[in-house]
UniProtKB/TrEMBL annotation:
<keyword id="KW-0690">Ribosome biogenesis</keyword>
<protein>
    <recommendedName>
        <fullName>GTPase Der</fullName>
    </recommendedName>
</protein>
<keyword id="KW-0547">Nucleotide-binding</keyword>
<dbReference type="InterPro" id="IPR015946">
    <property type="entry name" value="KH_dom-like_a/b"/>
</dbReference>
<dbReference type="GO" id="GO:0005525">
    <property type="term" value="F:GTP binding"/>
</dbReference>
<dbReference type="InterPro" id="IPR031166">
    <property type="entry name" value="G_ENGA"/>
</dbReference>
<dbReference type="Pfam" id="PF01926">
    <property type="entry name" value="MMR_HSR1"/>
</dbReference>
<feature type="domain" description="EngA-type G">
    <location>
        <begin position="185"/>
        <end position="365"/>
    </location>
</feature>
<comment type="similarity">
    <text>Belongs to the TRAFAC class TrmE-Era-EngA-EngB-Septin-like GTPase superfamily. EngA (Der) GTPase family.</text>
</comment>
<comment type="subunit">
    <text>Associates with the 50S ribosomal subunit.</text>
</comment>
<feature type="binding site">
    <location>
        <begin position="243"/>
        <end position="247"/>
    </location>
    <ligand>
        <name>GTP 2</name>
    </ligand>
</feature>
<dbReference type="InterPro" id="IPR005225">
    <property type="entry name" value="Small_GTP-bd"/>
</dbReference>
<dbReference type="InterPro" id="IPR006073">
    <property type="entry name" value="GTP-bd"/>
</dbReference>
<dbReference type="Pfam" id="PF14714">
    <property type="entry name" value="KH_dom-like"/>
</dbReference>
<keyword id="KW-0342">GTP-binding</keyword>
<feature type="binding site">
    <location>
        <begin position="58"/>
        <end position="62"/>
    </location>
    <ligand>
        <name>GTP 1</name>
    </ligand>
</feature>
<dbReference type="InterPro" id="IPR016484">
    <property type="entry name" value="GTPase_Der"/>
</dbReference>
Length: 457
C-alpha cells in the first residue's frame, strides 16, 4: 500500500502552524503557545479534512540564522520536510501582514519544486483584511483566508489541498486494484434466526464447521472463518466468512445473552465489506428483513440479498417477483440490490453468490477519475438545472470523490443549503446509473465555498 500523501506546514515562528496541525489531526499533538519557537523538530500526524486523508508535517518556524546554530538546524529540518512533501502549506499571519521574513520564505519556496499553497491565518475580523491583500505580493497565487483556531476557511483549504492529495491517492488506488485479488473478501451472512446462515456457511466450506439444528438462535457469537473459493476461472480467491447471530425485532430480544449476540452481529456488519442478507423462502420477506437491510446500507456496506431454502419453496417465479417488488418499495434508497436464490441444503447458487459478492466489492471500492466525474456532473446539470428558490440562483461548481468503500462525494458551490433533497436524489440516482455504482451505498454531501469572513457571501 502506498504511503499517504504529505503536506508540510511552513512559515515564520508564531503564525499558527501548530494550531492548524492540531486541527487537521484532530488532537493536540503539537504544543501551542504565544511564545515563538515552541516547535523545534518536525512533527507528523495523520490528518483528515472533509474526507481527504493525508499526512501532515508541523515544521519549526523558518528563521534566518547561521546553519550551525539551533535555529539554523531547525531551518534545515524545515527545508528537508518541504522537499519530501507533495505540497507545502505556507502560513502567514494576516493580522501582522507580510513581513520581510515572509518575503524571504516566499522567495525560497518559489525556488523549490514542491507545489505551494498560501494561507493567511488569523484572518477573522477587519484586522486581517490588509494582510490578506498584502499576501498577493508574495507571488504564490491567491491566499486562502482562514482561522486555524476557530476552524474557519477549511472548505477553501480543502479545495487547494485536494489536487495534491488526489494525485497520490490515484497511485494508491492503482496499487490497491493490482493486489485486491490477494485480499480476503470480508463477507458476513446476516438475517433473522433460523434463516439457515450456519447451514449455508457449512455448505460453502463443505464441512460441518458450525453447529446447526432446527432450534432458532443456536449461533450466539460472530464466527470468522478464513477460506479460499475456487472461482469459475480457476483462481483461488481468499474469503473471510462471518456467521452472525440471528437478528430479531428489538422488542422480542429479552434475554441478556441474546442482546449481546445481536450487538455482536451488528459489530460484524461494521467489520465486513459485503453483507449477504439471507431470507427464508418459506416465510418470504418480512419487515425485520427490511430493517436489517436498511441498517446495512446505513453503515455503508455493500449488500446482497439471497433467498435460501429454494429447494423447498413453491411457486418459484411468483415468490421471486413478489420479493423483488417488495424490495423496490422497501429499499428505495438503494434500488436494484442484487437478489439471488440459493439452497444451503443442495448448494444451488452458491458460486453465483460468491461471484456477485466479489463483483459488488469491486464497485464499492471503485474511484472515478476527476475528469469523468465532472463530465458526468456538467451533463447532469445541463439536463436538469438546479432550481432557483425565491429567484436566487444555486450555483453548482464541481464535484469530487473524497472516499471509497463506500463511494463518497462532495459537491462544491454557492447557496447549497437551499438545494432540495429531491435534486440530491436526482444526482445520486444518476451516479448509480451512469457511473455504474448500481445499488452500493453512495454518499453525497455539499460544501459551500466562499470567504468565511466576507459577510456579503
Amino acid at each position: 500500500m502506498a504511503k499517504l500523501p504529505t503536506i508540510a506546514i511552513v512559515g515564520r515562528p508564531n503564525v499558527g502552524k501548530s494550531t492548524l496541525f492540531n486541527r487537521l489531526v484532530g488532537k493536540r499533538l503539537a504544543l501551542v503557545d504565544d511564545r515563538p519557537g515552541v516547535t523545534r523538530d518536525r512533527r507528523e500526524g495523520d490528518a483528515s479534512l472533509l474526507g481527504l486523508e493525508f499526512r501532515v508535517i508541523d515544521t519549526a518556524g523558518y528563521e534566518d540564522e547561521d546553519p550551525d546554530t539551533l535555529p539554523g538546524r531547525m531551518r534545515a529540518q524545515t527545508t528537508a520536510a518541504v522537499r519530501e512533501a507533495d505540497a507545502a502549506l505556507f502560513l502567514i499571519d494576516a493580522r501582522a501582514g507580510v513581513t520581510p521574513l515572509d518575503e524571504e520564505i516566499g522567495r525560497w519556496l518559489r525556488s523549490e519544486t514542491t507545489p505551494v499553497i498560501l494561507a493567511a491565518n488569523k484572518a477573522e475580523g477587519r484586522a486581517g483584511e490588509s494582510g490578506l491583500l498584502e499576501a498577493w505580493s508574495l507571488g504564490l497565487g491567491e491566499p486562502i483566508p482562514m482561522s486555524a483556531e476557530h476552524g474557519e476557511g477549511v472548505v477553501d483549504l480543502f479545495e487547494h489541498i485536494r489536487p495534491h492529495v488526489e494525485r497520490e491517492e490515484a497511485r494508491e488506488e492503482e496499487e490497491y486494484a493490482e493486489d485486491e485479488n490477494d485480499r480476503p473478501l470480508k463477507l458476513a451472512i446476516v438475517g433473522r434466526p433460523n434463516a439457515g446462515k450456519s447451514t449455508l456457511i457449512n455448505r460453502i466450506l463443505e464441512e460441518e464447521r458450525l453447529i446447526t439444528g432446527p432450534e432458532a438462535g443456536i449461533t450466539r457469537d460472530s464466527i470468522s472463518i478464513d477460506w479460499e473459493w475456487q472461482a469459475p476461472d480457476g483462481r483461488l480467491r481468499p474469503v473471510r466468512l462471518i456467521d452472525t447471530a440471528g437478528m430479531r425485532k428489538r422488542a422480542k430480544v429479552q434475554d441478556k445473552l441474546e442482546k449481546l449476540s445481536v450487538a455482536d452481529g451488528r459489530r460484524a456488519v461494521e467489520f465486513a465489506e459485503v453483507i449477504v442478507l439471507l431470507l427464508d423462502a418459506t416465510l418470504g420477506l418480512e419487515a425485520q428483513d427490511l430493517r436489517i437491510a436498511d441498517y446495512v446500507l446505513q453503515e455503508g456496506r455493500a449488500l446482497l440479498i439471497a433467498i435460501n431454502k429454494w429447494d423447498v419453496a413453491e411457486n418459484h417465479s411468483q415468490l421471486f417477483q413478489g420479493i423483488s417488488a417488495a424490495l423496490q418499495d422497501g429499499l428505495s434508497q438503494a434500488p436494484g440490490v442484487p437478489l439471488l436464490s440459493v439452497s444451503a441444503m443442495t448448494g444451488k447458487g452458491l458460486d453465483q453468490l460468491l461471484e456477485a459478492a466479489f463483483k459488488v466489492r469491486e464497485v464499492w471500492s471503485r474511484r472515478v477519475s476527476t475528469g469523468q466525474l465532472n463530465r458526468w456532473f456538467e451533463a447532469a446539470i445541463e439536463r436538469n438545472p438546479p432550481p432557483a428558490p425565491g429567484g436566487k440562483r444555486i450555483k453548482l461548481r464541481y464535484i469530487t470523490q473524497v472516499n471509497t468503500r463506500p463511494p463518497s462525494f462532495v459537491i462544491f458551490g454557492n447557496r447549497l443549503e437551499m438545494l432540495p433533497d429531491s435534486y440530491l436524489r436526482y444526482l445520486t440516482n444518476g451516479m448509480r446509473k451512469e457511473l455504474d455504482f448500481g445499488a452500493v451505498p453512495v454518499r453525497l454531501q455539499t460544501r459551500t465555498s466562499k470567504n468565511p469572513f466576507n459577510k456579503d457571501g
